[in-house]
């Protein structure tokens, strides 16, 4: 339950959930790619990405000027899918 609480706390924002869902489907996207696909400003997006990386949800690597993010903690998908399947939402 501690891990579930940690995941919920760390992803408790619509933009963060959208980031997780996007990275689950497309591993290794650049900040620009994520920004364009989610229609979110890069500065705001970078704030969310950095926070989730520091918490261990995401990982990143640099390739030239671009930073690519991927989902590190795959269990996050299970928690989000379980919540999405709830009939009371």
Question: Could you walk me through the main structural features you see in this protein, from its secondary elements to its overall organization?
Answer:
With 89 residues, this protein is of the alpha+beta class. It contains 5 helices and 3 strands. The protein has helices spanning 2-10, 14-25, 31-38, 42-54, 75-84; strands spanning 29-30, 58-63, 66-71. A 3-stranded antiparallel sheet has the order 1-3-2. β2 and β3 (66-71) form a beta hairpin. The two termini are 21 Å apart. 16% of the residues are buried.
Question: Which short descriptors sum up this protein?
Answer:
single chain, 89 residues, alpha+beta, 3-stranded antiparallel beta sheet, 5 helices, 58% helix, globular
Brief rundown of the structure:
This protein has 89 residues and is an alpha+beta fold. It has 5 helices and 3 strands; from the N terminus they run H-H-E-H-H-E-E-H. The chain is globular and about 45 Å long.
Topology overview:
Elements lengths: L1 H9 L3 H12 L3 E2 H8 L3 H13 L3 E6 L2 E6 L3 H10 L5
Antiparallel strand pairs: 1-3, 2-3
Keywords: DNA-binding, Transcription, Transcription regulation
Protein name: Winged helix-turn-helix transcriptional regulator
Pfam families: HTH_20
């Amino acid at each position: 339950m501690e891990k579930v609480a940690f995941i919920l706390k760390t992803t408790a924002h619509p933009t963060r959930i959208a980031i997780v869902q996007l990275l689950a489907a497309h591993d290794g996207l650049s900040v620009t790619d994520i920004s364009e696909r989610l229609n979110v400003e890069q500065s705001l997006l970078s704030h969310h990405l950095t926070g989730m990386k520091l918490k261990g949800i995401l990982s990143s690597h640099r390739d030239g000027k671009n930073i690519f993010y991927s989902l590190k903690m795959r269990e996050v998908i299970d928690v989000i899918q379980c919540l999405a399947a709830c009939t009371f939402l």
